[in-house]
Amino acid sequence: MWSDVYQGKHGKMLSILASAILVLPSCVPTKEQEKTIVSLPSVSVCAKNILFIGDSYSASVFGSTLTTMMEQKIPGSRVTAIASCGSASGWWLSGRATPCGFWQHHDNGSEENRRHSNTPKIDELIQSLHPATIVVALGANLIPQKPIDRLVESAILMQSVTSHQRQCFWIGPPDARKFSAHQREEVYHMLSQLANGYGCHLIDSRDYTHYPATGRDGLHYSGKDGEAIARDWAVQVFKHNLQKEILAYQRAGSMSCALDSLDRP
Hints:
By secondary structure, this protein is α/β, with parallel strands linked by helices. It has one domain (about 45-260): SGNH hydrolase (Rossmann fold, 3-Layer(aba) Sandwich). The protein is about 50% helix and about 15% strand. The strands form two sheets. A seven-stranded mixed beta sheet has the order 5-4-2-1-7-8-9, sandwiched between helices. The longest helix has about 40 residues, at about 225-260. The relative contact order is 0.17.
């Protein structure tokens, strides 16, 4: 695991970090602070760039549908979507290669599909794409991980995503027969703690999905019926969680950019 690199020399430090992260709810912003965060974004949001990263769910119907909706319903947006099959938070920090599928949608509309590819590092993506909004769709592959690994890696990823007042959305794992409700709840509890502390919007995909009781692999939404569920999942997430928030953020960014231009000689 990515965080294993740090366990020896920095093992004690990671334990302290983990303990600190678990009390982050005390850092939850008030309603007034949330309004301030939305109304005063960084000047970097002058560019309406959106970065969307995810795992195998995002490499299929869910990801392509959500990408299309952001492009079509967010005027002027430039969307880059990248999905690395099997990826957990740490893969986007270490660049770990996926053995089961990689999909990338560029902001000019072109796409790439490969069986094997390195997972791009989040810091390099941010430096090259300058996104104002980042949408992360990860969670299912966090469930089998050790609690310390998923906690530390997800914390570092979320910290990178939210830096410089960047708008952050984290789409949690959908319903699945492969994992118990308790296992999924453990991951959602951790993500909720982190999202509250870092000012990221956590989206509960369990509200929009119900995995069939029989058939398929118990995890992925495949086949005609499964793809219909995945497509509706993407539509509901966009309509109820993304559309208004992103539009409001970009409007505030446009105002910030206009004011900044008036201050220039």
